[in-house]
Design a protein that fits this description.
- This protein has 301 residues and is an alpha+beta fold.
- It has three domains: 2-96, Rossmann fold; 117-179, Dna Ligase, domain 1 (2-Layer Sandwich); 182-285, 2-Layer Sandwich (D-amino Acid Aminotransferase, Chain A, domain 1), CATH 3.30.470.
- It is built from nine helices and 16 strands.
- The strands form four sheets. A five-stranded antiparallel sheet has the order 14-13-12-15-16, with helices on both faces.
- A hairpin with a 2-residue loop joins β15 (244-252) and β16 (255-262).
């Protein structure tokens, strides 16, 4: 097969591992900086051009789209889809999962466990918003934040009000969520490929840190999921229409709750903690499912 990995940086661990896994299986693989691609949008013969040359005869693409580059990155993925190229994750599903508010609303519609979440526009409604999620302590999140950046724990009502006013003063969109104290600064990352959880790890936040992100100094270890946690992860990914995703769960007193779904989950933490060849499993999935020149019925432009 001829596979393109859409990534800004060929030296990143995840990009390198995917290239290694594809090469080991004797596929022709190339890392392409999607931001340097340009597109010929035509009904006769849509094309993607990179470094002056049309990208032709690819069987599959693996999108590794940065959160801040979602708009252009998904446009490139969508162009490949128009060309009949199989994508490990479809453009519409990536866009759906990147919009945190839309993602939570879709999960709520499917009856999937979530932390109590509030969203508002006007600063005049802050007091009501805080009470909607049960009052302080609570967590305030920037909708555009990643890797734990833009996530604040407010211990008191006044602190929460001040943070929300500050964010809204910058015209930043935020979510307000209940603080799951019983999680004790830990979450669970479930890696789902093709409707199955292939690896899972527990991430524990650093001392005094409620965020468990490895980028924030958290530690990871392999963990065994409960049947309910496994089901929640799989249902969440299915609801988003994703094929490859990381699902972050918290263990709450009312069962597992979904915090986030990542359409370009990192491989280093999960592979190191579990010893599972996740990159290889992604390539295996593509081998079994890539059908040339076939558009998914789910794609809507």
């Amino acid at each position: 097969m001829k596979i393109a990995i859409l990534s800004q940086d060929a030296s990143l661990y995840s990009t390198k591992r995917l290239k290694e896994a594809a090469t080991e299986r004797e596929h022709e693989v190339r890392v392409i900086n999607y931001l340097r691609c340009y597109m010929n949008i035509t009904s006769h013969k849509p094309t993607v051009v990179y470094q002056g040359n049309p990208l032709e005869e690819y069987d599959a693409v693996i999108p590794r789209i940065g959160a801040s580059r979602t708009f252009y990155g998904t446009a490139v993925v969508r162009q490949f889809e128009l060309m009949g190229v199989f994508s490990a994750n479809e453009s519409q599903a990536i866009s759906r999962s990147r919009d945190k508010l839309r993602c939570l609303q879709i999960l709520a519609r499917e009856g999937i466990g979530l932390p109590v979440t509030g969203f508002a526009h006007a600063t005049q409604d802050i007091d009501g918003l805080i009470e909607t999620v049960g009052g302080a302590p609570l967590v305030i999140k920037l909708l555009e934040g990643t890797q734990g950046i833009g996530v604040v724990l407010a211990e008191t009502h006044q602190a929460a009000k001040s943070v929300i006013e500050a964010f809204r003063g910058l015209d930043a969109n935020i979510l307000v969520q209940e603080f799951i104290k019983e999680a004790k600064g830990a979450d669970i990352r479930c890696f789902v490929i093709g409707g199955k959880v292939v690896a899972s790890m527990k991430r524990q936040g650093a001392e005094g840190e409620f965020r468990s992100n490895l980028h924030r100094g958290g530690k990871a270890e392999k963990i065994k999921l409960t049947p309910e946690e496994r089901s929640t992860a799989v249902r969440s990914v299915k609801a988003m229409g994703l094929r490859v995703a990381g699902v972050d769960l918290l263990r709450s007193n009312h069962g597992p709750v979904v915090m986030e779904i990542n359409s370009s989950p990192g491989l280093e933490g999960i592979e190191t903690a579990t010893g599972v060849d996740v990159a290889g499993k992604i390539i295996d999935f593509i081998e079994k499912n890539a059908v040339p020149n076939k558009l998914s019925d789910r794609i809507r432009y």
